[in-house]
Design a protein that fits this description.
InterPro entries: Vps62
Pfam families: Vps62
Order of helices and strands: HHHEHEHEEEHEEEEEEEEEEEHHHHHH
Number of strands: 16
Signal peptide: 1-34
Shape: globular
Transmembrane segments: 400-421
Oligomer: single chain
Radius of gyration: 38 Å
Structural class: alpha+beta
Number of domains: 3
Keywords: Membrane, Signal, Transmembrane, Transmembrane helix
Helix content: 25-40%
Number of helices: 12
């Protein structure tokens, strides 16, 4: 009975709650550790805006930064032949990439966003929007910022600027003496060449541990890169200052208005841009922000570090504008179109196709510049070589000095070749004289050379007359 009474006493003192409480605590701790990973930070780092470029638009540029959605609404998707693509829903920044299905249908053609108006009539929407005194463009979003995380410490921030029209250079922007080779009545009357609907330009700032270390400026078919502390990079409150060229919107680190102040504004060896401090534009005040994952080739929308009343709602995805792989402007006008023209001797067209968007701008780079460089045509190569020699060796009186030097060098080369050939022949003759050749061998060799062919055939045959 004593054992039974102690058993019941133990049952009365045992309470299941004493074990359940710590067990539940352990389960909660384990679930907290083994639960789903936290979502990635969808906020853009503050330093991306703190060191973002400030852009000076040219004072006389009629084509300002443009709202992306407005551009889409004033264009129609077409194929390269200009025929509209049928059966499409209304397009916006959330579904623009559905055009990729048409682009990849096996026909090998690009899709173009063709202007609904004649672009050379310059409708209001194609002229873009001017910034206010603060540098903000209100009611429009012409900038796209794409972050590329290279390593946990390194980040490339691409600041893309969009314009609905690019006006190329005219004859006044061609350096001498190339300008004398492209004389044409249409060009002389002020026509520009290289015009196109849609224009994407960009800067890229590289950060290491949140601090800027370098910057890239896009310029036409290429660009220039500088270390952050380079004296050529001017800054305001540790933000790089960018000068946007008139019409072409190429980006430069310094202004330039005349031929004598164009060391950094010359492109394609013989053409220069005009840059000045016209209107200040702060692009990140009106921008979309994204993070790009190179491994999966996906982008994620980020919260702006500088919120604006014009920001779209968080529910808007907007990534379609990045995935769209087609062109942001018209195809080139056919040669039969009266609006089209070619530059004599060089073949440059007045109106060229619109550009591709940010996804095509070499987002993954080793250095500040794109890894792959564009191949030059032989004409472009020849112009570059000629213009490299022109200032020092060809222009004005230098031409005659250079011609004289060329003649002297050529003459010396010819004399050297002649002297070398004669010296070689003399050595060969002396070698022959030094060889001991018996006189009888010379006579036999001479007789053999002069003998008729029938005798040569019977040279080793026995004399038939002697055998008889």
């Amino acid at each position: 009975m004593a054992g039974t009474s102690s058993f019941f006493r133990l049952r009365r003192t045992f309470r299941p709650g004493f074990l359940l409480a710590p067990l539940i605590g352990l389960l909660l701790a384990f679930s907290a550790r083994a639960g789903p990973a936290p979502e990635p930070d969808l906020r853009c780092p503050e330093y991306v805006a703190r060191h973002a470029p400030l852009v000076w638009l040219h004072s006389d540029d009629p084509f300002k930064p443009s709202d992306l959605l407005t551009h889409i609404r004033h264009t129609t998707p077409t194929r390269e032949d200009g025929k509209p693509i049928a059966d499409l829903p209304p397009l916006d920044l959330d579904n623009l990439d559905l055009l990729n299905e048409i682009r990849d249908d096996g026909r090998g053609e690009d899709v173009f966003l063709a202007s609904n108006d004649d672009p050379l009539t310059y409708p209001a929407w194609i002229r873009g929007e001017a910034p206010d005194a603060e540098g903000r463009i209100r009611g429009a979003t012409p900038c796209v910022v794409v972050l590329v995380e290279k390593t946990p410490r390194d980040l490339d921030a691409f600041y893309f600027y969009f314009y609905s029209f690019n006006e190329g250079p005219n004859i006044t922007q061609v350096l001498e003496p190339i300008n004398r080779l492209v004389n044409d009545t249409k060009l002389d009357s002020g026509w520009h060449f290289g015009d196109h609907v849609g224009d994407w330009e960009h800067n890229m700032v590289r950060f290491r541990d949140g601090k800027p270390v370098g910057i890239y400026y896009s310029q036409h078919m290429g660009g220039s890169a500088y270390e952050w502390d380079d004296s050529k990079v001017s800054k305001v409150d540790d933000r790089p200052v960018v000068y946007s060229a008139r019409g072409t919107h190429a980006n430069y680190p310094a202004p330039g208005k005349t031929n004598t102040a164009l060391s950094s504004q010359v492109h394609d060896a013989a053409i220069f841009d005009y840059c000045d401090e016209g209107q200040k534009w702060d692009p990140v005040l009106s921008a979309y922000f994204f993070r790009f994952d190179a491994d999966s080739f996906t982008v994620t929308r980020l919260e702006s570090p500088v919120p604006s009343p014009d920001d779209p709602p968080a529910s808007a995805n907007l990534t379609s504008l990045f995935y769209y792989a087609g062109r942001w402007g018209d195809a080139a006008f056919p040669d039969a179109d009266p609006r089209q023209a070619r530059v004599p001797k060089f073949g440059l067209k007045r109106f060229v196709p619109g550009p591709n968007g940010p996804r095509h701008k070499h987002l993954v780079r080793k250095g500040l510049k794109p890894n792959k460089t564009r191949k030059m045509s032989w004409k472009e190569w020849a112009v570059r070589v000629f213009m490299a020699w022109y200032p020092c060796c060809i222009r004005g009186w230098r031409r005659w000095v250079s011609l004289g030097v060329f003649v002297v060098v050529l003459s010396a080369l010819v004399i050297g070749i002649v002297f070398g050939v004669r010296k070689y022949q003399t050595r060969k003759y002396r070698k022959l004289r030094e060889e001991e050749i018996p006189l009888d061998d010379w006579v036999l060799e001479e007789e053999a050379l002069l003998a008729p062919s029938d005798e040569d055939d019977d040279f080793d045959k026995p004399d038939k007359n002697k055998t008889r």
